[in-house]
Amino acid sequence: MEFNEFKDSIFSNWQKRLIKLALYGSITIVIFEVVIFLAFLKTNFLTTSVIHYLTIRILIPTGLNFLTVLICHKILKSNSFTVSQKNFAASFSIFVVGSVVAIFHNYYKFLLVANGLPIIVTAIFADKKLLKKILLYCYLTFVIVMVVMWFDDTKLGIVDYLTTLICDFIFINIIYMVADTIVSYQSEQINFINTSNQRQTELIQELKIEPLTKLYNRTALAGALKSFVRKFNEGAIEPHMVLIDLDHFKVINDTYGHANGDSVLIRLSDVLKKNLGGIRRAFRYGGEEFVVLFDMESTAEVMEIMERIRIDFCGETYDFAPGENFTLSVGISKMQKNWDDTTWFNAADEAMYRAKGNGRNRIELADF
After folding, report:
1. Nearest to 52 by CA among 32, 37, 35
2. Long-range contacts of range 156-159, CB-CB < 8 Å, 24 or more positions apart?
3. How far is CA 133 from CA 87, 91, 340, in A?
4. Which of 72, 99, 175, 256 could join 116 via S-S bond, C-beta 3.0 to 4.6 A?
5. Residue 1 DSSP one-character state
6. 305: β partners
7. Cα→Cα distances 52→151, 167, 176, Å
8. Contact present, 88 and 133 (Cβ < 8 Å)
9. Which helix (H) or strand (E) holds 260?
């Protein structure tokens, strides 16, 4: 798994947890309000009509909470939104629940702190832009709360009102500074882990590269074959394997020396890279044998590409062997049902040996 995929999977887990937290919080709030309502009703402590109380304290806030949770849950389930957008949706669900508590239940002054809780929760996603966005929303809630309190709580004196206003504003900003520090620390940790992961990936990649030809080695091929077989069985690809053997390579080494023989191998690898667009699908199996894997190309397309490679290589010239050209024998095998990687390789190998038996410098298809 790539690091970004790993990070996104962690964020995805947090998104689901926050939506659950918003849902459980909404349920807890409505239960608490119903209990308070019944207590007020029994003790004749209600200062407004039953309809007004149920509407303002229960129906509207509960409706806002559950509607937000439902919408945000749909966003998380959809593939139309980016990870960042889903992070925002999860944070926004907590913001709405906190704002509903602060706006509709502000008769308990200590509940005003709920307006700042979404800020600290948002720090989970290590995104300063998202953090600032939630902070601005919390400021908006703060203004609404102050307006509601001014008109709703007629018993609240100007001193108490200003004290509440200042304390809540200070609390929001302190929470933001703490959250910003957490985001900075998390970002440093994520960058460190990402750098370490990239370096580790590079080292692993280097171990899979054959030093002479700079193609993938036999170890890398073994892993690639298992991956191709798995994807074929899942119906994702229709792969072909190509086995290439450099004709009369022992004669080349014996006649011109191993150093010049190595230069021929390097020249073949260069031809492969040029025609394949890099080393992604090219492997040095060992000695003078090479393997090329194709995932979605048709048999005709594979034949065309390999014929171009064969002709290009045959046209190469060498200073140590003026006027002489070297050739390839190629076997192609299309993956079949119920084959494993060994059966697949053996089919390509048999086709390659048939090319040698039929005169070399040619391409043969495996029999199915």
Report:
1. 37
2. none
3. 12, 10, 53
4. 175
5. -
6. none
7. 16, 30, 35
8. yes
9. helix 258-276
Would you give the distance in Å from CA 110 to the centre of its chain? 41
Sign of the torsion formed by the C-alpha atoms of 333, 339, 341 and 345: negative
Question: Can you give the length of the chain in residues?
Answer: 368
DSSP 57: I
Going across the sheet that includes 328-334, the strands are 282-286, 289-294, 240-246, 328-334, 363-365
CA 59, CA 63: separation in Å to the nearest integer? 6
CA 99 – CA 111 distance, rounded (Å): 10
Residue 37 has pLDDT above 80, yes or no: yes
State the DSSP H helix or E strand holding residue 364, giving kind and residue range, or none if neither. Answer: strand 363-365
**Helix or strand (DSSP H, E) at 240:** strand 240-246
pLDDT tens figures, 208-250: 888 899 999 998 999 899 999 999 999 999 999 999 999 999 9
First to last CA, the chain: 35
Q: Is 278 left (phi over 0), alpha (psi -120 to 50) or beta?
A: left
- Cα(334)–Cα(80) distance, rounded to whole angstroms? 36
In Å, how far from its chain's centre is CA 108? Answer: 44
Distance (Å, rounded) from C-alpha 270 to C-alpha 284?
12
Give which of 29, 143, 12, 181 is closest to 87, Cα–Cα. 12
Question: What percent of the chain is predicted at pLDDT more than 70?
Answer: 95
Torsion angle defined by CA atoms of residues 302, 307, 308 and 313, in that order, rounded to the nearest 10 degrees: 130
Contact (Cβ atoms closer than 8 angstroms) between residue 231 and residue 293: no
Residue 78 CA, chain-centre distance (Å), reads 15
Secondary structure string (H, E, C) spanning 171-195? HHHHHHHHHHHHHHHHHHHHHHHHH
